Amino acid sequence: MNIASIKDQVSAEEWQLRVDLAACYRLVAAYGWSDLVFTHISARIPGPEHHFLINPYGLMFDEITASSLVKVDQQCNKVIDSPFPVNPAGFVIHSAVHAAREDVQCVLHTHTRAGVAVSAQKCGVLPLSQQSTFVLASLAYHDYEGVAFREDEKPRLQADMGQANFLMLRNHGLLTVGKSIADAFLSMYTFEATCQIQLAAQAGGELVHVNPLIVKGVSEAMRVQTGGLGGAFVWPSLIRKLDRMDESYKT
Fold first, then answer.
1. Domain extent at residue 238
2. pLDDT digits over 52-105, tens only?
3. Distance between CA atoms of 91 and 72, rounded to whole angstroms?
4. 1 within domain boundaries
5. pLDDT tens-digit profile of 137-153?
6. Nearest by Cα to 129 from 28, 214, 233, 231
């Protein structure tokens, strides 16, 4: 698609955020986590205005560019004119999280088969892998209330999530948050891997659970460290990978 650049209409800080968020959308597509044009990844723009970037509704994730991202306010009203529509219903979950978590810059939500499958299991995430120990260190659950477009669901979702960085939306999918786009992406990579591994393990023989003391130790380590899973370390390599595939997300 031929989308006009808006680089000269925004600050350098916002432009870099747009490039990183567009890269995140492309990476989600590349790893097979997208659901046609559904689900969203949002990013808070630094500043007192409480503005956010979100995908133009109707574009595939592998079509999204820095300039096509739509700037909206807390009510999902456009702040900068855009030829693309936005999906206010899709922003309900994101706006709820952003409103409750000032520490969060990025909210990433997926509907992958593995994620939805584990979200439908009564046991939820089991301590079956190293990946699962990182998820269990900061995991919350929110029960399904139907398609998430009602404002009255927000306080319940906020209460369920609390300060967790991983949220399993029962019968719905996965959600991660991060202090940066890189952190939210790496958390989702770990969350998705956890779910895929769990389903594969359940299809085999008797399961061996990680020692609860080890899970508790990881939880304590994750609580005291400030770097999360270390998204900043892996992000440059992901950008290089994406650049080898297609650099058009930067436009």
1. 7-250
2. 999 999 999 999 999 999 999 988 899 998 888 888 877 899 999 999 999 999
3. 10
4. no
5. 999 999 999 887 788 99
6. 214
